[in-house]
Each structure stands twice: as C-alpha cells, then as structure tokens.
Design a protein that fits this description.
The structure is a homodimer of 167-residue chains. The first copy, chain A, has 167 residues and is of the alpha+beta class. Helices cover 47% and strands 17% of the residues of chain A. Chain A starts with a helix and ends with a helix. Chain A binds a DNA duplex (30 and 30 nucleotides) through helix 5.
Chain lengths: 167, 167
DNA sequence: GAATTGGCGTTATATTATAACAGTACACTT
DNA sequence: AAGTGTACTGTTATAATATAACGCCAATTC
C-alpha cells in the first residue's frame, strides 16, 4: 500500500491501471487514520471519500450531491461540505482552489504540501513529489522572513499522455 | 520604477512605505502596456487597477463594487469582473484562487509564475521571487512528463512583521 | 438513565461569478 | 462629416459555490 502511495499518484494520468485497488487502499488508510485519532468514518464520509477517489479528476461538491442522493443520503449542500471538511482535516483529500474541486490525497499519512499538476485536456490531477519543491519554497520565503504554514501549488498544463496524443 | 518592481513587492509586508508611489508606478506601467498592445485603459479599468493596487491585501470583486458606485460607475458584478479579466489578461493583477481575491502584480512586464505569500495575520500578500522556484517546479513536473503552462503558488503563513509582533 | 457530545437533516441564505442582450462611445473609412 | 464596425459598458437575470442556524437523533460518558 505504501509503495503505491509513494508513487505520488502520477498514475493518475494513466487511466489504465486498476483503480479499484487505489480506492480500497485509500479507504483502508482512512479507517486506520480515523481509528488512531478517535474519529468516525461514517457512511456519508466513507461514500464521499470513495466517490472522490474513484475519479482521477477533481470533483466539485455539487457533482457529489446527486450521487449521495442515489445512495439514499440526504443531498443538501451542508451534508457534502461537512464530509469534505472532515476528510480535508484528516488529510485524506485536497481542495484544488483554482477549480473549486476536491481530489484524493495519495499519501495522507505524511505531512506534505498541497501540490498538484492538472491536465487541461483530460482534467486529471496528479500529486507532485515535493521534497525538492518544498525546500525551494522554504528558501524563497525564508529569504523574505516569511514563515510558511501551508502551501498550495497548482500547475496547469498537459500531461504526458495528452501531449503524446496531441502529436 | 523597475528597481521597485524587482523588489517583488516584498515591501507589501511593510506598510510604512510610500504606497502612492507604487500605485502610480503601476498605473504608468499599465498605460505603457496598453499602448503597446493597442488596448484601452478605460476609466473603470483604471479605477479598478488603482483600487487593487492601493490595497496590500487581496480584494474581492464584491469589495470593489461599492467603491465603483461611489465614483459614479455602474456597480453591477459584470462591470467589475470585466475589468478584472482585462487586467489579468494584461498581467497587471493576479487572482488568488484560495481567497477569491485579486492583487496587483509587481512586475507585469515579465513573464512569471503566479506565486504569493499571504500573511494570515495582516492578510497582506507579497509576490515571491520565483527564478529558482520555477526551475524546481519544472524539474518536478518534467520528471513526470508534465508540461507546465501556468503555475499558481499560494503560501499561507506569517510575514516577518507579524512574526516579530507576535513575540 | 441523564447528560453531553458529535453527526446529520433541513431550510434558508450568503457569496462569488457569468449569461445574454441592449445601448453607447470610439476608431476607422471614405 | 457621415457611415460603419468594433469594443466597451449598462442592465437584468441567474448560475455556481458555500455557509448559517436550528432541531433531532444516536453514541458515549458519567
């Protein structure tokens, strides 16, 4: 599971992998995390997490609502936003501000900056490996005396797959 | 003027400087840019640019509306959004997605990533110098075959000024 | 088993952004 | 200077995203 997590979800741009595996890994990881922190992964929360993970594309809150309704849950905005907030606080999903959308986090157990590449063609988003990035950010900010508490990096462009397809 | 621009607006965290000077520099730069590109810096556009530049804190579209009204302009959302879009396209302002707000760009004449530090205490935002950052981003993305077209970096934290004040 | 807490249902509303169309000013041609 | 096209603005309406507030129920604690 951890090997997969460390792939930093670059597989997101490769739609051919067995994604059900990823979803299950994420759910397992969520359950562990909740148990450790004395939090509850309730049915709504679990469903929201599953829906978000199932998609390689960031999903908007209002895209989730009909799917909640289908599953028999209340489908008013507060329900889904609460679940999203909860999952974010646990680091299980990230919000992509430039898209008003949410995507699964591929390594919730490690502290890390929120850093994504988003393909304008296929709309997939993949998390960046940020070891070096983080130090570059710290250096740049530190030079100006700024103390970083939270990072958000969103790169728009073309993924390898779509670049090749465009040729 | 250019010296000031190259300071990358780190002065934003220092509210004591003569900010009217910055605003005027920005307006001048805007006029030049518009002339070069055959675009018009109309009164609404100029006012919006001025209002945004006057503030060290990112301003939301709806915060601008009453000020437009005061100046005798139409103050419906489309008016301000049109001006904001125009100014963004010319690189004169940036949108900070995580805040749904806009801030003046301190070096509109150079191509550069959208990269800001935002202080959670004083809400000021300052543009990052991104030469090294840019190469770190390119390296990280390139390793995964991703071709960057547009960057957005938003760092939240504490600016030097507020950090010292907190001690 | 009473009290407390956390989570959800529900209604209403706030906030941010855009669509669509009509009118006006400007720039260009002749 | 009149005609013509284009870019800009005014205006109304509405879409899209997000939160406030309150009450109920279930689980947990004492």
């Amino acid at each position: 599971m951890h090997t997969q997590a460390n792939a930093f979800n670059s597989d997101a741009f490769n739609t051919s992998h067995n994604h059900e595996h990823c979803v299950n890994a994420a759910l397992l990881s969520a359950k562990t995390l909740c148990r450790d922190r004395g939090q509850r992964l309730t049915p709504v929360r679990e469903l929201v997490l599953r829906l978000i993970w199932q998609s390689h594309q960031p999903l908007g809150a209002y895209e989730l609502l009909p799917q909640l309704a289908e599953a028999g849950f209340n489908s008013a905005p507060p329900t889904v936003y609460r679940a999203l907030d909860f999952l974010q606080e646990l680091g299980l999903i990230h919000r992509i501000a430039s898209m008003n959308a949410f995507i699964g986090c591929s390594h919730p157990d490690e502290a890390h900056p929120n850093a994504f590449m988003i393909c304008r063609e296929c709309k997939s988003a993949a998390e960046l490996d940020t070891a070096e990035l983080k130090s570059a950010l710290s250096a740049a900010a530190g030079a100006l005396g700024f103390q970083i508490e939270q990072e958000s990096v969103e790169l728009m462009g073309l993924c390898q797959h779509c670049r090749e397809a465009a040729k």
